[in-house]
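Journal club side-thread
Mid-discussion, someone asked how the predicted structure for our own chain would compare to the paper's figures. Pasting it here so we can look after the session.
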Amino acid sequence: MTLVPITYKGGIYQHDIVTDLIEDLGGYIIQKHVIAAEVVLQCFVPRDDIELIRQISKPLFGEVTDTPLVGTEIAIVSMSLEIHHLPHPSCDIAEYVRRIGAKSNMVSLARGPGKRIAGLNDEERDVINEHDIAVYLMGNFETCIEYKMPTLRRGIEVPIVLCGGPDKETLKKIIDPPVDGYVGNVGRFMRRTKEADEIGKLDEIVDEITRVLEKKREEIQKDPLSVSPARLMGLIKEKVPAIHAVTSPTPLTVQMAGLRVKLPYDTFARDLRQLEIEDGIKLGDISEIVPSRMRDYILVKILPFSETNTVI
C-alpha cells in the first residue's frame, strides 16, 4: 500500500467523518489545524483511496488537494537575517513551503556574508543535516556565489536546492560539483513577494524542492524504512503522555526518514528506546535515538530494512 500526502480543508462541522475515514483506510493524520470554523488536515492516505475521500468530502464542502511536501522538514538557509541581506526572500519562501505542507526552519549563518569570512560552523552544519533538504538563498553576484559555495556546502549530507540572483543556467555552470536543484533570478530584494511573477517564482522553488524530494523518496522506497514515520508518530502520541503537554504547534515533526520529538533528551530518550512498537520490537531496535542540535529535542532516525531485517 502506497501512502501519498494530501491536505483536506473544510468546515469544522462533521469533519470527524473525514478523520475516521482516513484512519479506517489505513492513513495517518500528520497535523490538524482548527482556524475559526475551518479545519485543515495534513495527511498520508492510500493512493488508491484519494477519490473516495474526495467523494465523501463533497457533501461536507471539503476540498482535497495534493500537497507533496507534507511530512518533510526543510531548512531555509540564508546568509544573514540583516535587513540589507535576505529578510524578505527567506521569510516568504519559508512561509510558502509551509502552505504546501512542509515544516520549515530558518537557519541564519553567523559567517554567511562576505567572501573573506564565509563559512559554516559545526552547529550550523549539524542543524542543516537534521532536515530532509536545505534551500540555500544566496545573493545577486555570480562571482560571490561561485567563491563561497564550496565552503558553505562542506559537510552537508542532505540535498541542496540553490537559489540565487543569476539565472538557472549560470548557477549550474558555476557550481562544481553540482547541487541537487537550482532556481535562478531569486536574489536579494527589499520587498515582499506580492506580484504575479514573484508568486510564480515561489511556485518554481516549490516545484524544484518537490522534484528533489521525490528522488529522495524513490531512494527510500528501494530500501524501505523499518516503520513509517507517520505510524511512529501515532504510537508516541498514544504511549508517551508527556508529548501532549508540549506547547509547540508541532510537538512531533514528521520527516521523510524519522521524527523530531520535542521533549528533553536526557529525560525521555530512554523511554523512547524502550517503546514497544509491535511483538516485542522496541523503537531502539529499529532506529537511532540521538540528541538534536536544535534546543534539547530528540531526533529519531529510523533505520532501513537492510540494517534491521524488519518492516512493521
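Post-session note: The first strand starts at residue 3 and ends at 11.
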